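Researcher: Following up on the earlier apo prediction. This time include the ligand. It's S-adenosylmethionine, with the SMILES given after the sequence.
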Amino acid sequence: MLQSQYKKIKEKFESNQHLWQEKYYRNDYESLTFQWRQDDCVSLCQKHLHANSRILDLGCGCGHASLTLAQLGYNVVGIDFCESMVKQAQRNAEIKNLQKNCTFKQADFVKDKLTLGSYDGIIALGFIEYFDDPITVLRNIHSLLSVQGIAVIQIWNRNTISDRVFSPLYANYQKLFNPIQIVKRMAKFILPKPVVEKFRKPVSLSADKYVYINVTHHRYTPSEFDIIAKKSGFKIIDVRVSHFLPYPFFFSDNRRIRWDKKLQTMAADNEFIKAQAYNYVAVLRKEL
Ligand SMILES: C[S@@+](CC[C@H](N)C(=O)[O-])C[C@H]1O[C@@H](n2cnc3c(N)ncnc32)[C@H](O)[C@@H]1O
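Model: Understood. Below is the ligand-bound prediction.
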């Protein structure tokens, strides 16, 4: 099965559409990491696709990447299986007066892929992580591309220095030494359950409106993704990376942003630094 958590994923995005709208207007570190990956995708499209190419945006969400590309003169179609996302994307297109060269439709990549048409470029940000079998997804993308077509795909790198060092350190610090966490854990034992529930806050951009539905995110290392791309008939010809810094236990947001920007520049010609980024945006060219 291509997407075993289909129902859960759809439910999650259908109810949290407002977060995907907000992310692109905020300037906290977490929101910026989404904007950076979009900037990388857009600049890679500008580098590898001629001006009026036709582009398909898979899992377009509220349409921010599609609309940025349309503003640059591309003809873009964005698809998403969530009605709330597509409606917001259409509203965004109206506000920006871009309905002519940017259309959005509710479609399911798994069920509707044969009716999506043919494109010079396909972008997929935060998309293939929701599928169990990335090779089949990329093969399907391959079949929707014209002969010279390229795909710009974002993945989450699963083996950064943060995963190996900082996150375990942070988790242990939280468990063993953080005084607030220690008090919270003690409170869980001492206070009655309804009181504890009352104080429990979901972690999110808009905590008040967030619906928590846990789904699996499939992450790959850059070298695993290289193999996945090859097996799907592609060659990776260009890469941009961003989002290096882990949980903020010793960085302020502003400092993290400044350091991330520095690391993004350094990664351009340093493979070790490049391999430490969470956001990995790759250009895949058809080989077969
Ligand atoms: C993480 S969001 C990313 C949204 C947007 N690309 C962005 O970066 O802001 C993933 C999107 O993929 C959509 N999606 C997941 N599975 C899909 C499928 N099978 N067909 C169409 N859209 C899908 C979800 O509804 C969601 O809007």
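Model: The CA atoms of residues 62 and 88 lie 5 Å apart.
Researcher: Noted. I'll compare it with the apo version next.
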